[in-house]
Amino acid sequence: MASIQSIRANCRKVMCIGRNYADHVKELNNQRPKQPFFFLKPPSSILLPGAGPVLRPKGVTMHYEVELGLIMGKTVKDLHPDDTQGALDAIKGYILAIDMTARNVQDEAKKKGLPWSIAKGFDTFLPISNLISKSLIPDPQNAHLWLSVNDQMKQADNTDLMLFRIPRQLSDISRVMTLEEGDIVLTGTPKGVGPVGTGDVMRAGLKVDGRDIEEARIEVP
Amino acid sequence: MASIQSIRANCRKVMCIGRNYADHVKELNNQRPKQPFFFLKPPSSILLPGAGPVLRPKGVTMHYEVELGLIMGKTVKDLHPDDTQGALDAIKGYILAIDMTARNVQDEAKKKGLPWSIAKGFDTFLPISNLISKSLIPDPQNAHLWLSVNDQMKQADNTDLMLFRIPRQLSDISRVMTLEEGDIVLTGTPKGVGPVGTGDVMRAGLKVDGRDIEEARIEVP
Ligand SMILES: [Mg+2]
Ligand SMILES: [Mg+2]
Ligand SMILES: [Mg+2]
């Protein structure tokens, strides 16, 4: 299986699903979407395990969002939303990821109708875990995500709470843009997002059937 | 010099500058920006020369936007806005490009404060020319862009009209996200954007000192 370094090097697109957990939609006072919507993060924002801290740009309120990430293994175009097997077959592995967000920049962009790319795209704004082989997550809709800041648990929810499940996500994305091998899809964040500053330590992980997945651990200063 | 096929294959980020020509800002009833803003298009939207038509998704009002594109030749981070030589040195070549936009999708996204990625990211939404070697455009702020639809001239303006010049663009982008070799930067579109439908033929080109640049020609059905 490919190393996590090669995942970064070969990634040409990071697609992120927004507002995919009901309680997270509420906590940001957003509208519950009628269909999945998504946005791009640049591959240059990927922060590999052990590659140092997330850098907070001046004047930025930086929020964490823990998410299950999919590494695509093949080209996907116009996937049918009910094609669960097709969706699973197109995934070659998983990562855990933190979709760091410049919340104040995003809030201003929303107000002005401007793109989200800056708010989501700073260097180091996408810490990822090591690669998780597919066999460790037999059902990606039944995995427990958690994230703590300075050992205080902040996010802890199961992926079965997603509003739109993975086949529907890949269907909607791939009807707009072809997913290519090496592309990364982030599947949305559960409730509990919040600010993090210089000196805070984020830890995140994934449990399947109550068991910690070693490869999924993230620790970023 | 690299082939245009390898440009597509190696591109990991397409950054586009918005609202960079005053008369284009006016024609869309937008606010003139105090600083450059930018958004991402996915590399999967690139349409190579001769690779067929731009595909109009159902229900989409599709607009053309002709733009001068920069192909980055090296890593750029925190470039100084006055470093004109540094900016030029970081460019390894040029392309002409049409930043196709699902205008009705974008208008709705703006109204709702949603990301622009869908409106800008459909497959085939980035027709590009062949590679233009650097020596053919001695001064990228003095090149004449044009685009016609069914042989009716729609856009025709000089890059000296840019509100934010290229060094400032690369400075602002690279203070958010590192520009890497192979990344593409689109520098904004002049006035005259408009709709195009199935069956319409777009042609676009570039003149330098009154001379047509052969490599810059685009023709898409
Ligand atoms: Mg997110
Ligand atoms: Mg965007
Ligand atoms: Mg444009």
Q: Judging from the principal axes of the Cα atoms, what is the shape of chain A?
A: globular
N- to C-terminal distance of chain A: 28 Å
Number of strands of chain A: 16
CATH class bucket of chain A: Alpha Beta
Query: What's the architecture of chain A in CATH terms?
Result: Alpha-Beta Complex
Secondary-structure content class of chain A: alpha+beta
Strand composition percent of chain A: 25-35%
Please list the strands of the largest sheet of chain A in the order they lie side by side.
2-1-12-5-6-9
Greatest chain-chain interface?
A-B, 34 and 34 residues
Fourth-level CATH superfamily of chain A: Fumarylacetoacetase-like, C-terminal domain
CATH fold-level label of chain A: Fumarylacetoacetate hydrolase, domain 2
Give me the Rg of chain A, rounded. Answer: 16 Å
Bound molecules: magnesium ion
Percent helix of chain A, as a range, is 10-25%
Query: Sheet with the most strands of chain A?
Result: 6 strands, mixed
Give your account of this protein's structure.
The first copy, chain A, contains 6 helices and 16 strands. The first copy, chain A, is of the alpha+beta class. A 6-stranded mixed β-sheet of chain A has the order 2-1-12-5-6-9. In chain A, strands 10, 11, 14, 15 and 16 form a 5-stranded antiparallel β-sheet that branches. In chain A, strand 14 and strand 15 form a beta hairpin. The mean pLDDT of chain A is about 95. Chains A and B meet through strand 2, helix 4 and helix 5 of A and strand 2, helix 4 and helix 5 of B. One magnesium ion sits at the interface of chains A and B.
